[in-house]
Amino acid sequence: MIDKNAEKQYDTEKEIDHKEFLEMIPHYLAGDLREKDLLLFLDHIKTCHSCYEELETAFMVDRTVRYLDDELDDDAEGSYDLPRMMKDDIREKTREVYARQNARHVFRVILIIVIMAVVLVLGDFFDIWDITGMI
Ligand SMILES: [Zn+2]
């Protein structure tokens, strides 16, 4: 499912078969979907009821297995509301993916500012322009 056509798939998002999203479910639960696929996936389950239900089932199985394996703390015990937990999980993953994109954007802006500053300083140093003289 993760291939070189990822770009193309993004554009033709609506035409992708549900099957592809169903194949993404285990990766979603394992947390190893690529960002682009994760965005597609999150976007799809927002509107696709049948895929959402499939995810809900898979989520319950996954969490139950982990619970039995003692991977999860018992904090949630008593209020073991799996559909609710899944909604929180989706919200959290959506937040994370956008936060990551934001961080990348901020990093790019900072990088551009640093490059511009370096260019200005070098230009001054090599007498291409005279910034220090202007101050
Ligand atoms: Zn679907």
What does this molecule look like?
This protein has 135 residues and is an all-alpha fold. The chain has one domain. Helices cover 74% and strands 0% of the residues. The protein has helices spanning 6-11, 18-30, 35-47, 49-68, 82-125, 131-134. The longest helix has 44 residues, at 82-125. It is elongated and about 70 Å long. Residues 6-15 have low confidence and may be disordered. The structure holds zinc ion.
Q: What would a concise description of this structure say?
A:
This protein is mostly helical and 135 residues long.
For this entry, give a set of tags.
single chain; 135 residues; mainly alpha; 6 helices; binds zinc ion
The Cα radius of gyration reads 23 Å
Distance, first to last CA: 58 Å
What share of the residues does DSSP label as strand, in percent?
Answer: under 5%
Mean pLDDT: 85
The gross shape turns out to be: elongated
Tell me the series of helices and strands, N- to C-terminal.
HHHHHH
pLDDT < 50 runs, ≥5 residues: 6-15
Number of strands: 0
**Classification by helices and strands:** mainly alpha
Residues in helices, as a percent range: over 70%
Q: How many strands, which pairing sense, and closed or not: the largest β-sheet? A: none
Small molecules bound in the structure, each named once: zinc ion
- The number of distinct helices, counting runs of at least 4 residues, comes to 6
Whole-number tally of structural domains:
1
Oligomer: single chain
Break the fold down into its secondary structure elements and pairings.
Blueprint: H1 6-11, H2 18-30, H3 35-47, H4 49-68, H5 82-125, H6 131-134
Helix pairs in contact: 2-4, 3-4
The site of zinc ion has 6 residues, from helix 2 and helix 4.
